[in-house]
Amino acid sequence: MPLIGHVKELWRYPVKSMQGTPLTDCLLTERGVAGDRCWAMRDENRQEVQWGKMYPQLMLCSARYRSEPQPGEVAAVEITFPDGATLGSDDPGLPDKLSTLCGTRATLWPLQAASNREFYKRYKPDPAQWAREISAAFAREPGEPEPDFAQFPEVLVDYVAVPGTFFDNEELHLITTASLAAMRAKNPAARWDIRRFRPNLFIETVPGVDGLVEQNWLQRRLVIGEAELEIAAPTPRCGMTTRPQADLPFDKTVLRTIVREGAQNLGVGAHVKVPSRVRCGDAVLLTD
Question: Which of the listed CATH numbers 3.40.50.200, 3.40.50.80, 2.40.33.20, 3.40.630.30 matches domain 3-286?
Fold first, then answer.
């Protein structure tokens, strides 16, 4: 198996659409990184779990666990808001703080069982409004193509996530340094910071591996230590890539470049086929 790179960074996002936490090592499970996206904001007016596409204010917050979560456990989190205030998931003032931030009646919810399908249902008062909201989330400009929505799991037509998870589709997301370098070469004025793209694994490719290389890995496997990942699909990018977070400014040219130069895609989604612990610095091998 050829060596294609090493794990440069590992990331976990305790709360869906909030800033994540860099890790030195993590356990990859069949549900992705242990503890990844185990909490989410819910708009109680719409009775719907929400994301940064609809409420980009969430991206101004950061979240971390008080203690390392165990597989299958939803551990308590602490959220730091843009004004510097930090509140725990068990703080009675958290709903009011979230509601003020988002401008709607908001609460924080842990993962619910897959059988609780009502919890995961989309707010769809009529098909036209739903279509407009989905289109707006991808933030295309006139003349730009929209993603082929047929590539997404059918369950996402009626549910905001695969029930039992807070994932839009695949449970793991990967990007390479080669892809970021390719985008940077096309638009050097933009800040191609990895935080814009919210991967779980940021892979530093070996010399000679250039361009949008992970798009060539579809349906192939990566081996990282004892773990094996199956590359499932390219990742079409949405308006979240342009939004401010931490010290990153709003920049719509990031998405324009991806749509034009990457056929709308940057990075890939993957499934964990053989769970194991992985570490920064681990070799990444591509199956033949």
Answer: 2.40.33.20
DSSP 35-74: TTT-EEEEETTTTEE--TTT-GGGGG-EEEESSPPPTT--
* 47: its two tokens: 């009775």
Could you tell me the residue ranges of all domains in the chain? 3-286
Q: What angle do CA 230, 233, 239 make, to 5 degrees?
A: 135
**pLDDT, tens digit, 9 for 90 and up, residues 121-179:** 998 888 788 778 888 889 999 999 988 777 777 788 889 998 999 998 899 999 999 99
Q: The whole model's pTM is what?
A: 0.94
Axis crossing angle, helix 177-186 with helix 253-261, rounded to the nearest 10 = 100
Residue 179 contacts residue 202 (beta carbons within 8 Å): no
Tokens representing residue 286 in the block: 């591509």
E-strand spans in 134-209? Answer: 172-176, 201-205
Please list, in sequence order, all residues whose beta carbon lies within 8 angstroms of the beta carbon of residue 153, skipping any fewer than 6 positions away: 162, 169
pLDDT digits (tens, 9 = 90+) for 225-250: 999 999 999 999 999 999 999 999 99
| Residue keyed to tokens 């551990």 | 75
Q: Residue 260: helix, strand or coil by DSSP?
A: helix
Q: Are the C-beta atoms of residues 119 and 136 closer than 8 Å to each other?
A: no
Rg (CA), the chain: 18
At position 191, the amino acid (one-letter code) is R
* Amino acid (one-letter) located at 175: I
The Cα 106–Cα 96 span in angstroms is 7
CB 237 within 8 A of CB 256: no
